[in-house]
Every structure is written in C-alpha cells, then in structure tokens.
Amino acid sequence: MFTTTFDQFDWETEKASIYNKTQIEAEKALLAKHRTYEDFKALIAPAALPLLEQMALLSQRETQRRFGKTIQLYAPLYLSNECQNICTYCGFSLDNKIPRKTLTSLEILQEIAVLKKMGYQHVLLVTGEAQQQVGMDYFKKVIPLIKPHFAHIAMEVQPLEECDYRILRQLGVNTILVYQETYHQSDYKIHHTKGKKSNFRYRLETPDRIGRAEIHKIGLGVLLGLDDWRTDSAFAALHLQYLEKTYWKSKFSISFPRLRPHAGGLEPKTVINDAELVQLICAWRLFNQDVELSMSTRESQNFRNNIIKLGITSISAGSKTNPGGYAVEPQSLEQFEIDDTRTPEEIIEVIKQAGYDPVWKDWDAILQLD
Amino acid sequence: MSNSLKIADKIFSSRLFTGTGKFSSLSIMEEALLASGSELVTVALKRIDVTLQDHLLKHLDHPQISLLPNTSGARTAKEAVYAAELAREALETNWLKLEIHPDPKYLMPDPIETLLAAEELVKKGFVVLPYCHADPVLCKRLEEAGVAAVMPLGAPIGSNQGLQTLPMLEIIIQQANVPVIIDAGIGKPSHAAQAMEIGADAVLVNTAIAVAPDPINIAIAFREAVRAGRIAYEAGMAISGQEARASSPLTSFLTNT
Question: Which controlled-vocabulary keywords does the entry list (chain A) (predicted)?
C-alpha cells in the first residue's frame, strides 16, 4: 500500500526541501537523463521558474516523441449531483441547498445523443458520493447502457472496494480517476468534514484498490491551491512513482484542477498562477515521459490554446458539469465554473492550428476482455 | 537496383514499412507516406472507427499501399486474437502486425503471449508479423509457429535510439528462414541504412517520420537510406576497420629460407 511509503515522508520536511532547492539543482534536474523524485521537486521549486522556457521546450519534445503531435478529446458526462459529503470547495457539497438530480436511463441516452453528435468516443462519467442514489446498483444499471456508445469509458466516482472496481472493469470501464485533493492529512480533515470522504487514509489507499482490480488506467490529481500546491504535487509524484512500479500493467494520468479565488467561494491557501501551472505541467512531463496529462475546461481560452503544445495529451471541450447539462436540464447548477465555453468544433480548430491532430478514438472495447 | 522482397503472397519493391500514428494531421501523414514510397502501412485497430467510414483509412486509399492492421493496446493473447479478427473484418485483410504489450510505459512486447497468439492466429489463417524482442530463440520459435516474418525491436519503441540490440539482430538475421523486419527504435535514416546493411529484409519506421519537423522530406530521406543500405548489403561491402598488417608478415618464414 502507498500508505507505507507515505508514512515515511513528512509534509513540512518535503515542503522545506522544495523551497530550498536552488537554480543549480533545477538545472541539474533539467539535464538529467532519468529524473528522480528529487529532480521533480527541483523542477517545481520557485528556483526553477527562470528555466521555464527550457522546461517548456524539453516538455514539448518529450511529449511529441512519446505521444506524437496528437491531442485526445474527451467529455465529462455528469450522472448525478447527489452527495453525502461536505467538502468546502465543491458545488455539490451536502450543505449546498441546490436541487439534486440523478439521471434516469432515458435521460442518460438523451445526453449521450448530444455527446455523440459532437463526435465524442471517450467519455468521463462523474457522480457525487451517495450510496443510495449512485452506488454500485446504479452503475450496474447504467454502464451497460452507456458502453455501446463509446470506445473508452472513464469514471470519476466515490472510492470503492476492490471487488466493486472489478465489477466496473467487467462492465467495461477502462479508467478510474480519484483525486486525493490534498496529501496534507490534517488540512484534509478541515476540507472534508462530513461523509465517507472525510476518511483520509481510505482515500489514499484507493489507487491501490483500483490497481489490484486491474483497472487499465488510473487518474490522479490534487486540487491545486487547497494546500501548498508544490508540496501536494510532490506527494502526487511519489504516489505515481509507487503505483507505476507496483501496478506495472496500468496506465496513469494526471489532471490539474486549480482552485482560484472567486466571490463566495473557498479562498485558496496558495494561488497557483498561469506561469506556475505551466511549470508544473512541464515538470510532470520531464519527471514522467509516459504519463497522460489532461486539461479541463476550467482553464481560460488563452491558457488552453497555448498549453496544447507544452505537454498535455488530452483535453475536454464543450463540457457541462451539471447532470443533464447537455440536453435534459441545461440550466442546472454546475459543479465548477467552466471558463472555456468553446464548442468541440472550435477546439478542434485550435488544436489543428497548433499543428496537432485531434484524436476522437484511441481505444476499442475489444481490447478489454474479461 | 535491389531485389524485391516477398512476404507471404505479396511482393514489395520498397523495404521501408511505415506507421500512421503521431502525425500532426492526416493530410501530412498521407503526403509523408506517399513520399516514403512505402507499400505496407500499419494501422492501429484502436484508432479505427469500424462503425463509420473512417477518414484515417481514406487517407491510405492508394493502390500501392497495403494495410497492416496492428493489435496495439492488446495485453494478452486473447485480446490480440479478438482484435485481429475484428481487424480482418474491418479492413478486409488477413495480414496482421501482432503487438502485445502488457506494460504501457515502455511498451515491451510480451514474448509468451506473443508466441501463444501467433500460434493461434496462424491456425486461423492470418499472415502474422509479430513485433518481438530481439531474442534469437523467440524468433525461431515464432518462425516454427508459422509467422510470415519476424519484427524484432532495435530499441524501445518510440525511443529513436537506433540499433541498440545489434548483436542479437545479427544472429536473428543469420538464422532466419523468414524475412526479418527491424521495428522500433529507428530514429534516423542512418539507423535504417545500418539495419539494411546488416541484412535486415525491411524496416518499420513511424515516430522518426511522424514527429520530425518536416515529415515529408524525412520520409524521402528514409526511403533513400533504406534503398542505399539494401544495395550496399547486396553489393557486399569492403571490410572495415584498420587492416592488420604485421610488420613482419606471419607467414614470411615460408619463403625466407
């Protein structure tokens, strides 16, 4: 279990070590053939910021070599906003008085029709955590409905038991995303006050359960800004390093949701600005040449237009983060605010302009047999 | 002119095989592949949408180009066999590049699953070209299973590192009864020329063309390098290195009596 590795590291020590990294250490990391965890820390350190252009160039080169000049397209499909958790940063938090909705089979098909018309073949299913409304019984009912329409199915749902992940795999789910949000154990408790999600260690062990269930791809991430984003990213790097060695048949992806100051919302503990987010994305690529790096519509048009060339491998477009957002109930409350509202066609054009081939399909159901 | 290459029932005048992944656009891919003169082009089944008239295939619709579907993404023999059957139906060819890599990081081919799948696919009537390690024994075992050619790797796929497995490749070529196509790791035209000079029957190049700043001209460079390497192999090359010339010839005692 990753918890064994995790317990050997102390948050404050790691944090101090990152902030004490020098530019020389960052330059050494840049030149290294195989970059270590310490190199990753040097590359995300404030001391590495002056090297950003070189990092970007190397990141672009490594990404093109491994993934080619291609960008994978995916879209989220929110199935439900029911949630029993209280999380300080989330629109679906139990204490938010919003109308709750879980899509019916018919509604799911209506939503799928819109996504298919846009061209999507890779879909990300999202729910809150509510065992009654969106537990395994619900998944067993709706996934067989969804599966025939897509080449690749990812899910971002509550942490489950290993046996449940096995069932999901048998139902045709290819990828599971579970974000730790923060690796700062005591601050985690402050942000997750109620519900199953408040159990830090159960969440920390989730990618192990996913790996043991032989899910093909595992997605990790931290909510950048919830705590010190550098230290959190360093722990995520440790996590990835552990998982890659333990579950060597699994693929991995990293996402970069960032918390930004907005009226009425949770104030980030540290703000990660655009340059720092570029630095973080490039550092991930230099640390791991094979991990998929994903970019959502939380980011601005300008940022997304330019990040295509710098290391990411997949991007969403035209996303709706409310259940029914595509067809059934377009006006309902979103989980988080979409910044880039451009349509998939517009994003396709941006990708092509950047000199990349937009890829709709890069998987096939035939490749996952149980 | 170099001799043509025969694999199963097909004759190829070009010994440069190519891939279709990683290009910045389908039209650039098409132009580069045409410029390369390649007559066998591999396509990942996972990129093909069999329910639609896939536009990737439209760009490959040229009389001189034969398609070689591949099973990239398959992690077991079972998955590869299913994928092969789907590919045969979708692309209307029984040719298959068999790829099984359970490890998504380095994409190392699984020798055991590859051999199992090759045996089964040959029985099912496929023309099997397996991607494998530069392992001489494995290549012989695959040959015994009835594959049409073997495709040992020069270096990890996509790494552009050249023929890192050279001594093993030389053994494979020496003892093969089927064509040897060096796949993976060929990063520059000189690597391709070297592969041909040591007697490989063909090479497969993808990343080095697709990701190059000018894929069309680099495709031409590969075309010429493969041709030059093959002519050199057929013509025979002068012995390289510094010739040993002992200051007192070792056999001089025979005449200096």
Answer: 4Fe-4S, Iron, Iron-sulfur, Metal-binding, S-adenosyl-L-methionine
The domain that holds A183 is classified in CATH as 3.20.20.70
Residue A101 lies in a domain: yes
Name the residue among A290, A359, A366 with its Cβ closest to that of B86: A366
Quick check: A290 and B47 CB within 8 A?
no
Across the interface, whether the CB atoms of B22 and A70 are under 8 A apart is answered: yes
The domain containing residue B167 runs over which residues? 5-254
Give A240's strand partners: none
Distance CA A142, CA A156 (A): 15
B204 contact A CB<8A: no
Give me the CATH number covering residue B18: 3.20.20.70
Kindly provide the residue ranges of all beta strands, DSSP E only, lying in A150-291, ordered along the sequence: 152-156, 175-177, 192-194, 217-221, 251-255
Quick one: which of B103, B203, B196 has its CA closest to B153? Answer: B203
Cα–Cα distance between A165 and A168 in angstroms, integer?
5
- Residue B182 DSSP symbol: E
pTM of the model: 0.85
- Tell how strand B10-12 and strand A122-126 pair up: unpaired
Q: pLDDT confidence of A366, banded at 50, 70, 90?
A: confident
Q: What is the pLDDT of residues A276-320, one digit of tens each?
A: 999 999 999 999 999 999 999 989 999 999 999 999 999 999 999
Q: Tell if the CB–CB gap between B46 and A357 is shorter than 8 Å.
A: no
Question: What value does the mean pLDDT take over residues A329-345?
Answer: 82
**ipTM of this complex prediction, to 2 decimal places:** 0.71
- Determine the residue of chain A that is closest to B208 in CA distance: A65
Q: DSSP character for B72?
A: T
Across the interface, whether the CB atoms of A250 and B21 are under 8 A apart is answered no
Count contacts between A and B (CB, < 8 Å): 81
